[in-house]
Amino acid sequence: MKGKKQVLNSRCEIYNYLDYSFADHLVQDITLGMTGKKKYIPSKYFYDLNGSQLFEEICTLPEYYLTRTEISILENIAPYIIGSSSQIDLVEMGSGSDTKIARLIRASSYLQGEGIRYIAFDVSESALYEAARCLTSQFPRIQVLGYVADFTRHLHHLPHVENTIFILLGSTIGNFTDEEMYTLFCDVSRAMNPGDRFLLGIDMVKDPVILEAAYNDSLGITAEFNKNILNVINREVSADFELDDFDHLAFYNTGREQIEMHLVANRPVTVIFEKIPLTVHIKKGESIFTEISRKFSRKRIEDTIRPCNLKINAWHTDPDRWFSLVELSKVFQ
Which residues sit opposite 165 in a β-bridge? Predict the structure, then answer.
């Protein structure tokens, strides 16, 4: 089905694919997540306008090393990554703000963005519009094609692309289970043509003290971000969560090599979801699982991508080896 089209300006078109299915998928996700033995809400529902703004604040916090470390690597390798061909498509999945992609373009040989078509997927319509507005302002000759869409379900809507770099930054892949990673890597692999590349941001296994500090900042912004997912659910399915009834909990699970984020009920809670309809009782001390953020070794990445016919071309990291940007290509049989 064709997405609803809106033209932002002469160089930017945005298609909305969530109008048709977002509400149905959310109801399914919440029903499954809130009625199981262990309650959960998928982390993709963090990112409404307020959630996106809170995450941008998190990225500037001293404890949150991920963004500044990734950007430092990106700036160093940008000329190599983006190259100097006359035309290139940059396909960013879970694009969020324009901060990182703008640095990549600015460090390239594409003056004013000429020769670049930027194709962005994001579930937040407001974040996508703001990023498109900023990019077309900064780079007067860039072309922008936006998809208000879930890249885990809508990647097949991509137009014909040539000389493409698929981009997944910010350790977003760390939010995926093994099965979800396999599906995504295979989807990207199927979309790749000879010469295409896949730039993947991954957070590396490191001292748990460093990891836990990054998700428990002293200003409480991460806690506010975590609780904001309840605001999203309240708005979308007419639920009556009270944010003060829950406490933020984030810790490193050493055995699974992942940060886990939860919202823990500080009293017995009854939540009514009017639009589903559903009533859920949550005991004091019971948690709602909201996010995993997995940390990786090189071997784990190699083992994960191999069944999807992907291989590592180059591995870029910082001096402390805290974060890596990995360039992948497809193995054609």
Answer: 90, 197
Alpha carbons within 13 A on the beta-carbon side of 113? 21
Residue 16 is encoded by which pair of tokens? 């909305």
Residue 156 near residue 150, CB atoms below 8 Å:
no
Q: Which residues contact 120 (CB under 8 A, 6 or more apart)?
A: 91, 92, 95, 101, 128, 131, 132, 144, 145, 146, 147
Tens of pLDDT, residue by residue, the chain (333 residues): 456 777 777 889 999 988 656 778 899 999 999 999 999 999 989 988 899 889 999 999 999 999 999 999 998 998 888 876 778 999 999 877 788 899 888 877 777 888 899 999 988 888 888 888 899 999 999 999 999 988 998 898 888 777 999 999 999 999 999 999 999 999 999 999 999 999 999 999 999 999 999 999 999 999 999 999 999 999 999 999 999 999 999 999 999 999 999 999 999 999 999 999 999 999 999 999 999 999 999 999 999 999 999 999 999 999 999 999 999 999 997
Looking at the DSSP bridge assignments, the partners of residue 260 are 251, 292
Spatial distance between the Cα atoms of 169 and 166, rounded to a whole number of angstroms: 10
With 0-12 CB in 10 A as exposed, 13-18 as middle and 19+ as buried, what is 230? buried
> Judging by DSSP bridges, how do beta strands 197-203 and 164-168 pair with one another?
parallel
CA 56 to each of CA 47, 59, 170: distance values in angstroms, whole numbers, following the listed order: 11, 5, 12
Query: How far is C-alpha 98 from the geometric centre of its chain's CA atoms?
Result: 13
Measure Cα distances from 313 to 64, 83, 153, 310, 322 in Å: 28, 15, 27, 9, 20
3-class DSSP assignment, residue 5: strand
Q: What is the CATH number of domain 54-207+296-330?
A: 3.40.50.150
Give the gyration radius of the chain's Cα atoms: 20
Which sequence spans correspond to the domains of the chain?
22-47+222-294, 54-207+296-330
Q: With CA atoms as reference, report the closest residue to 25 among 178, 182, 179, 149.
A: 149
Instruction: Extract the tokens encoding 28.
Output: 């399914």
Q: Are 202 and 296 a contacting pair, CB within 8 Å? A: yes
